[in-house]
Each structure stands twice: as C-alpha cells, then as structure tokens.
Design brief:
Blueprint (H helix, E strand, L loop, with lengths): L3 H4 L11 E10 L3 H12 L4 E4 L15 E2 L7 H7 L2 H24 L7 E9 L5 H13 L4 E4 L10 E10 L2 H8 L4 E3 L4 E5 L2 E4 L2 E10 L16 E12 L7 E4 L6 E5 L2 E10 L8 H12 L4 E13 L5 E6 L2 E8 L5 H17 L16 H24 L4 E2 L8 E6 L2 E7 L5 E4 L11 E3 L4 E3 L6 E3 L4 E3 L8
Helix pairs in contact: 2-8, 3-4, 4-8
C-alpha cells in the first residue's frame, strides 16, 4: 500500500557501497533524520557518508503525515511536572528551532516541497477536559511557544476545547528529502551488518569513520545501549480522502480514539486507530477509519491508504545524543514517538553540535543517558510484561488453528504436521509458510491482516508474508 508521498515524487537512485573507504562521519539510515544529519554535518565542513539499507526515504519517512510542529500531544504540562520547567523548555525550544531550520533549508536550497505555514491544534471532544487543555496551553506559553486555548475550530463537529499552536508547518516529505539529499555522499542497498568501534561493515564494503550515527529508526545493536529494553513500537493508519473537508490547520485528537486531520494535494489525510505493533490480529483498522469518515462525509472516497510505525520511549522523550557511555564516538537518534519530522531536525542539530564540539543548549533533556524513574516506571513494567509474555508464547503457546482450517485470503499461526508455523494463504489457495520466531530476540510473531505482514509484539520488527524483512531492529528475514 503506497502513501500519497511515494505516488507523487520520484527520487534518483544511488549506487551501493563497494569496497572500503574512510571519512569523518558515517550516518546509518537514509530517512529524514539521517539525511538531515548528513546535510548539517556537510554544511559544517564534516565529510559524511550515508549508508541506507534500501532506498532513501523508503522507511518510516514515506509514511508520515508530514507535520512539522512543536505540538506533540499533551506533553508540556507533563514534562514540566516530571522533568521541571528547564527541561521542558529545552524540549520546546528544540522543536521550535526545528521548524525554523526547515524553513532555512527550503529557502537556501530552493526546495519545492509544498512547505506551508499552518497552525497546529490539539483537540478533545469530551474525554480530555477543557481544563487539561487550558493547562497545556498555559504551560506551552510559559515555555515560549505561541499557543492559546480556544473553543472554536474549523472541525465539522463540536469540541470540548482545543490548543492552537501558531507558526507551525507541513510539507511533502519526499520532495523535501529529494532536495536535501542532493550533493550528499549516499549509498543505497547497503544494509549495515555490524559496527565495531569506528568500522561499519556492509556485505560488499566498509566505512571507517571518526563518528558513527545510528539514524535507522530503531538501533539494531542491543548492547551497549539496551534500547530494546527502553522502547516499544506502535502502528497507526492513514486514509487520504476525496470529497471531505480540507482544513487550513492541522489537528490531533487527544482522546483515546482521537483522529488526526490535515490537508495535502486536495485530499484530507485522516489518521488514527493506533495499536502496539504485533497486536492487530483481528484487523479492520482501515475499515474503521472509513466508517468514521463516512459518518461525517457520506460521499467521501479513498484515494490512498498507508500505515506508520513509531518508536515509543519509556518517558515520552526521544533518545538523541551519545549512544552509550562506552561509545563516545557513536551517536543515536531514535524514539521520536509520533513526531518524526520536527524531531528528526532537532536530532540532526543536536548530533551535529556534538560532533563539531559545540554544546547544544537543548541537548540535555534528550540525552540517552538520562535517568527518569518517575516518568519511566509504569512503561518499563508494562514493556517487561509484554516481552516476557511474547517470548514465552513462542515456546508454550499452542497454534490457533490447523493448517487445513485456515481460509484462503487469511493468515495466522497454525499447526502443520505437529509443528507451529506462520501461514498466509492467497485467494488462489497458495500457501506461504514461515517460522513464527522473530530473528531479533525470538519473540513469537503475530499476523497483521491490514498489512499482510508478520509483526513482532516485543520490539516491532516486521516481515512481509514471504518472510522478507520490512522494519528493524531485526537485520534478516524469517525462514
């Protein structure tokens, strides 16, 4: 299923890495975070190479809703309470600066990417009280963001209240990436197999660099860093609609079943139906989105549909900076929650400053070395229980059906000749049989009928129905 972005732009392909080379910095990952980091490092005079496993922009960047905003859900009042106003101010400032930095790059490199200034709104239809939204607006104002509480929006239904963030923006992410990548040293189809000190190895070559940046969504190295213990992944879904309203602003619902709205290319992008990766056995997410859309706009039609995957941290703040205390020349950018566009730029600015030896005034709050037990405890316990359950399921859980009973057009964990397998049957009846064991850390994979994929509920790796790797942290497909 292709997004609106992939259907409306073509990015020139690059050659794969062949042979050995040396440089000052190597960036692993050619999505928005990786390309922005390489661009800012190059501007600073640092010779930089980008290694991309497939094609640049072909991972999470192509599936964003492409909002460039410091409005990140109900975060500022929470940050102020749990981290203090100084740390909350660093978070706010980093993302406000990110918006300005996008504008600078668009103008400097004359990038035609439909960059449009727009207000961003948080809204609630009743589950989140107007008082909570008012407090979020007040805290954002105190942190220097131009925000205000309002009860009036352009949405076609009443709201309990909303917070309007002024001076935000949206764009076409792949058009921007295409322009930002021009002139950079990029190697595609060059998945990184290992990193040892300053040497990064691919199947057909190596890059030795003074600085190594992990910007490939989810770090594939487990130790040091232990990011697999500090993050989980969520999926969310988008439909692009004709004959629906086209808002001037961008909207994010903060209720449990809240929806996201923005317009692009004459279409309404309607998002929602989030769930933890690996927990969508029943499917029907796109169907639910369309049912909700047609309840408001009976004549609307679907043009595109796609889904996104987001790394969620324990305390709600991304991990940006030094990879671990044991690896002073490694850097990481991950855990962007659902706000990958502004956070990618914030990460690029923080990592650039670290490499050139400049202290970033916003870097402390994002440090991967931070210790936040009060903010992290609940999610740490919940994540641990999920991992224990899903690791043990591979060993102890029984298959859910016999191979013969699985209908055509469906997938699931089944029994065949006394063994447990993952099976997807095409409408023709042809079966694709794979192992249910995730090659990352051995969790039992679960079938996602909306995407026809095998998803890992522990750490979010994903595979298509033939076993081909789609999303990391796994580095290989399933057998």
């Amino acid at each position: 299923m292709s997004s609106l972005w992939t259907e409306t732009v073509s990015i020139p392909r690059r050659e794969k890495l062949s042979g050995d080379m040396k440089t000052e910095a190597v960036v692993i990952g050619g999505g928005m975070a990786g390309i922005l980091t390489a661009r800012l490092l190059t501007e600073s005079g640092i010779r930089t190479v980008v290694l991309e496993a497939a094609a640049i922009g072909g991972g999470q960047t192509k599936n964003t809703t492409a909002k460039i905003t410091s409005q990140h859900g109900m975060i500022y009042a929470k940050l102020a309470e749990q981290f203090g106003m100084e740390a909350a101010g660093q978070y706010a400032s980093a993302n406000e600066k990110a918006i300005k930095e996008y504008r600078r790059l668009v103008e400097k490199y004359d990038i035609h990417c439909h960059f449009t200034e727009s207000s961003a709104y948080l809204y609630s239809t009743g589950e989140t009280s107007g008082k909570a939204l008012w407090q979020e607006a007040k805290t954002a104002q105190e942190l220097g963001i131009s925000a205000e509480f309002t009860e009036k929006t352009e949405l076609p239904f009443p709201v309990e209240g909303a917070v309007c963030f002024h001076g935000q923006a949206h764009f076409h992410p792949l058009e921007f990436l295409k322009g930002a990548a021009e002139g950079l040293s990029i190697y595609e189809n060059s998945p990184v197999l290992s990193v040892e000190g300053r040497k990064v190895r691919t199947a057909e070559g190596t890059v030795t660099a003074e600085h190594v940046v992990f910007a490939a969504h989810y770090p594939f190295i487990n130790v040091p860093g232990y990011y697999f213990m500090r993050m989980y992944q969520e999926r969310s879904y988008v439909v692009a609609l004709e004959s629906a309203f086209l808002p001037h602003g961008m909207y994010y619902g903060v209720d449990v079943d809240g929806l996201s709205f923005r317009s692009a290319d004459g279409l309404l992008l309607l998002g929602g139906e989030s769930h933890r990766t690996g927990e969508n056995r029943e499917g029907g997410r796109y169907k639910k989105l369309m049912e909700r859309a047609r309840a408001i706009w009976p004549d609307c039609r679907e043009r595109f549909r796609w889904s996104a995957q987001d790394c969620m941290t324990l305390d709600g703040v991304p991990y940006i900076g030094q990879f671990s205390a044991k690896t002073p020349n490694w850097y990481v950018a991950t855990g962007f929650q659902k706000w990958g566009m502004s956070t990618s730029m914030a990460a690029a600015m923080i990592i650039r400053d670290g490499i050139v030896g400049k202290e970033n005034p916003c870097g402390e709050v994002f440090s991967p070395e931070r210790f936040t037990p009060a903010a992290s405890a609940k999610n740490f316990i919940s994540g641990g229980l999920h991992s224990v359950r899903d690791l043990s399921r591979q060993i102890f859980a029984l298959p859910r059906a016999a191979f013969e009973d699985l209908p055509a057009g469906h997938g699931g964990v089944v029994e065949y000749k006394g063994e447990k397998y993952g099976v997807y049957k095409e409408e023709s009846g042809r079966a694709h049989v794979v192992s249910t064991r995730c090659p990352h850390m051995g969790c039992q994979l679960e079938w996602n009928p909306d995407e026809k994929s095998w998803d890992c509920p522990c750490h979010g790796s994903r595979f298509d129905y033939t076993g081909k790797l789609i999303d990391n942290p796994a580095q290989e497909g399933i057998k």
